[in-house]
Design goal:
Elements lengths: L15 E2 L14 E2 L3 E5 L12 H10 L4 E4 L9 H22 L5 E6 L1 H11 L14 H4 L2 E7 L11 E2 L23 E4 L23 H21 L47 H15 L1
Parallel strand pairs: 3-4, 3-5, 5-6, 6-8, 7-8
Antiparallel strand pairs: 1-2
Helix pairs in contact: 1-5, 2-3
Bound molecules: 2-acetamido-2-deoxy-beta-D-glucopyranose (7 copies).
One 2-acetamido-2-deoxy-beta-D-glucopyranose binds next to loops.
Length: 299
Amino acid sequence: MPSSAFRTALVLAAAATPCLGQTTTSSSAITCATGIHMIVARGSTEAVGLGRIGVVAGNVSELVPGSSVDAVVYPATFDAYFASEGTGVLAMTAMINEYTAACPESKIALIGYSQGGQVAMDVVCGTSETLFNVTADLSDALAKNVVAVVTFGDPSHMSGMPWNAGTSNNTGIFQRNNTAACEPYNPNIRAWCDTGDIYCDKGNNRTIHGTYFSYDHYVSQAAEFIVGRYNESLANSSSGAPTASGTATVSPTVSSTGGATATTAPPVVGQNAAGSFRAGGVGMAGIVAVVGVAFGLLL
Ligand SMILES: *[C@@H]1O[C@H](CO)[C@@H](O)[C@H](O)[C@H]1NC(C)=O
Ligand SMILES: *[C@@H]1O[C@H](CO)[C@@H](O)[C@H](O)[C@H]1NC(C)=O
Ligand SMILES: *[C@@H]1O[C@H](CO)[C@@H](O)[C@H](O)[C@H]1NC(C)=O
Ligand SMILES: *[C@@H]1O[C@H](CO)[C@@H](O)[C@H](O)[C@H]1NC(C)=O
Ligand SMILES: *[C@@H]1O[C@H](CO)[C@@H](O)[C@H](O)[C@H]1NC(C)=O
Ligand SMILES: *[C@@H]1O[C@H](CO)[C@@H](O)[C@H](O)[C@H]1NC(C)=O
Ligand SMILES: *[C@@H]1O[C@H](CO)[C@@H](O)[C@H](O)[C@H]1NC(C)=O
């Protein structure tokens, strides 16, 4: 897939400065944000675009003028979950690569819900979950621009991690084996998972996975966390990096080509009975069963 296919045109053009350079592989121009640039991966079966976790990006855009948002283009399906997630990892990594090539001074936040949360964490920490294709952790060259990573309901969630938020004490259905690979990024990561979430907590309450967005304190804590890391990264920069007090007057609308906006919720995922989890021939329950069998064989 050409790298340009991974991109959607989402930059808040009026709030941005010219690029310092362009990648040769991208046919679409990248406009460098004067604020923070957010790359958002939606959850399984959410409509193409930002998905519900786009509300966090919207709140960040309100707090930091001149920010921009881009949605990861990937299948986000429950069926063929492993390949879908792996496609998301490659796509998000390619987007970071392209953006930092065009905008070397950029400050980037990665945001993901559910499968998209696993995508964001795999991009940063590498993929080490059983049954997924192995990928390396984020290179230093790309990691220096990534100032924050926020996830809700990540199935690769691990208990006891210093970056955890929410009420979960358990580990998700796709446990992350190599958490040490995340540790260098620890201050930049915040991962929400609540007790009972069937994916990130191996829980038994099908409602909880879809409730993170209804908790204003989670959404605002996530946005504040990103802005706090952004502020700190600016304070750390000695070379006159862009400031948080941009000159943008554009309204902080977050949009995505063919997708949901930050204020328009796509169909709810994970709030209904088992049937709503089915995106195709094989539902998540089937995948969990397959994983259970696989673990049984491996163990
Ligand atoms: C976050 O965005 C939502 C939806 O636009 C809005 O209702 C809420 O007030 C915002 N919260 C903050 C803290 O900006
Ligand atoms: C792993 O990578 C191979 C080769 O690119 C691909 O065909 C396969 O679908 C991938 N599998 C998963 C689970 O991502
Ligand atoms: C991950 O850990 C589990 C449990 O210890 C183990 O069965 C599995 O082989 C590990 N997978 C990888 C990819 O290391
Ligand atoms: C999770 O662990 C904390 C700290 O040990 C404890 O206070 C809390 O009750 C636990 N929650 C659940 C649901 O077990
Ligand atoms: C599932 O979680 C929701 C949201 O927290 C709660 O309202 C509901 O009572 C829970 N259901 C069960 C059976 O615990
Ligand atoms: C970030 O910096 C701005 C501008 O200095 C300040 O108004 C805001 O309170 C800071 N926010 C956080 C979360 O640090
Ligand atoms: C800023 O610098 C401090 C001290 O070196 C470091 O601990 C912190 O992680 C840095 N923050 C960011 C966002 O780069």
